[in-house]
Write a structure and sequence with these properties.
Elements: H1 2-15, E1 23-34, E2 37-49, E3 54-58, H2 65-73, E4 80-85, E5 88-89, E6 97-100, H3 112-118, H4 128-141, H5 157-169, E7 175-179, H6 187-204, E8 207-212, H7 215-221, E9 224-229, E10 234-240, H8 252-267
Helix pairs in contact: 1-4, 3-5, 4-5, 7-8
């Protein structure tokens, strides 16, 4: 009886909607050396993200969006400046901040359930049954319960990204960092996932930093959209998107926001980045 109570407590704690993370970035610069010289990827970037906020970073290729995301994740170190998550310096990767990449990066030798289960093996407070219960919950959350035993090669691109999302959410991080996760998908699948991610964000209340080239996507998902200028990467403009959720990417109101963001991008000589598929 006592063991059953402990099991229930562990799973309940793991599925609890925990307080989302807040983020403070101050004066972050980052350069890279190559055979042709030194490239300044980020130049004195400062940014605050509130708890539970959904912030989109948009700009042309090479403007430093992904570099900044990697620094927030602790995968790269800035040359100067500070990054604080909940008031603590980010010095390396941590379970509180998980990354979802453009490619699903799933393990082909594991089935859908095994891929979601994988990240939970590092959580020492969970029993084997706890982990299975948590994995089952997140597969249901992303709508893949019926496919838990499917092989990865049997899945569509959209289903693979749902598995990747479930795997990122399963350890219950406080912040989710998303690097163009829908860029390789067809338009219809992307639209379905826009609805899914908004519902999941509402249910789980994560702080999300989302990198994209797609202006409509940014306006559809973000509470704020930050526009980067290239060479070096700087935040040049900020747009608040105060539309009710869930948002329809094809709505007239959303198109008006996207138009304003596109004009800002074009003013930086980034017309190509304004293409919204």
């Amino acid at each position: 009886m006592r063991q059953a109570a402990r099991h229930h407590s562990s799973v309940t704690e793991e599925l609890e909607v925990i307080a989302p993370s807040k983020l403070a970035i101050e004066g972050v610069s980052k350069s890279f050396r190559s055979a042709s010289g030194t490239v300044l990827a980020l130049d004195r970037v400062s940014l605050n993200v509130a708890e539970g906020e959904f912030v989109c970073l948009v700009g042309a290729s090479g403007c430093g969006k992904t570099t900044l995301l990697n620094i927030i994740a602790g995968l790269e170190k800035p040359d100067s400046g500070t990054v604080l998550a909940d008031g603590k310096p980010v010095t390396g990767p941590g379970r509180e901040r998980l990354v979802m990449f453009q490619e699903p990066a799933l393990f082909p030798w594991l089935d859908v359930f095994g891929n979601v289960l994988f990240g939970l093996k590092l959580k020492p407070n969970l029993t084997k049954k706890d982990r299975r219960d948590v994995a089952t919950y997140y597969l249901e959350l992303v709508g893949l319960s019926r496919f838990e035993h499917a092989n990865i090669h049997e899945l569509s691109g959209g289903m693979k990204q749902r598995v990747s999302l479930a795997r990122a959410l399963a350890p219950n991080p406080r912040m989710l960092l998303m690097d163009e996760p829908f860029a390789a998908l067809d338009a219809l699948t992307r639209e379905q996932l826009y609805g899914d991610i908004q519902e999941i964000w509402k249910a789980r209340r994560k702080t999300i930093v989302f990198v994209t080239h797609n202006v409509r996507e940014a306006a559809c998902l973000g509470d704020r959209v930050l526009v980067f200028s290239p060479h070096p990467g700087r935040i040049k403009e900020e747009f608040a998107v105060k539309l009710p959720r869930p948002r329809d990417i094809n709505s007239v109101d959303l198109a008006a926001h996207a138009t304003r963001i596109t004009k800002a991008l074009k003013s930086f000589g980034q017309a190509e980045a304004a293409v919204t598929g």
